[in-house]
Amino acid sequence: MVYWQLVGWGCFLVSLWLCRSPVGWKKLRTEKGYQHFVFASAIVLFCLWALKAGIREGLDIHFLGMTVLTLCHGPRIAIWISVLPLTLMVVFGLLPFADVGLYAFTTAVLPALLSYGVFWLTYRYMSHHLFIYIFLAGFLNAAVTIVFHICVVSAGYWVSGFMLGQILSITT
Asked: Among the four 95, 103, 114, 152, which has the fewest Cβ within 10 Å?
């Protein structure tokens, strides 16, 4: 493992520890309907992440993925739900085990926290209307999260020297 992978694992494990929720675990154990909702959400997220739709290798775009998961479950549960798709990606050979921490932190934790932040700002400062929720807390939130995710991953690639700057920059 290289330095960045260890940092990613550390950040991901710390965020999982900070996001632990005894209420969420109790609800997951006792309510069958919620169990189905959580596992269906995890499978849909796995399908989105397995598609690998993106600009370049490693710069994947998942429109509305973690944003919808965060809006449906909240950021703490959404981060824990992302563990199942990550495990499936490792089992099916779509993601090396060493990269799971960094991938999870940049693809699940940071987008979930940003999505919740945008939702909170929308809820706090805008009127409570269905269209405001759909367009600002949903679509605009997802767009901001995608841009943030791509910038974080691109900056990580640039700093680590994994990809050349010419590949990451827009060429005409």
From this structure: 152
DSSP 36-76: HHHHHHHHHHHHHHHH--BSSTT-B--TTHHHHHHHHH-HH
CA distance 90 to 150: 22
| b/e map 69-79, b = 16+ CB within 10 Å | bbbebbbbbbb
In the chain, which stretches have pLDDT less than 50? 172
The 10s digit of each residue's pLDDT in 91-127 is: 998 888 988 998 899 889 999 999 999 999 999 999 8
Please give the backbone phi and psi of residue 121, each rounded to the nearest 5 degrees, phi first. -65, -40
pTM over 0.90, yes/no: no
Domain that holds residue 97: 3-168
- How many CA atoms lie less than 13 Å away from 112 in the CB half-sphere? 24
Q: The CATH number of the domain where 107 resides is what? A: 1.10.1760
- Amino acid identity of 85? P
- CB neighbours of residue 136 within 10 Å: 19
Q: What is the rounded distance in angstroms from the CA atom of residue 146 to the CA atom of residue 172?
A: 23
Predicted pLDDT at 48 = 84
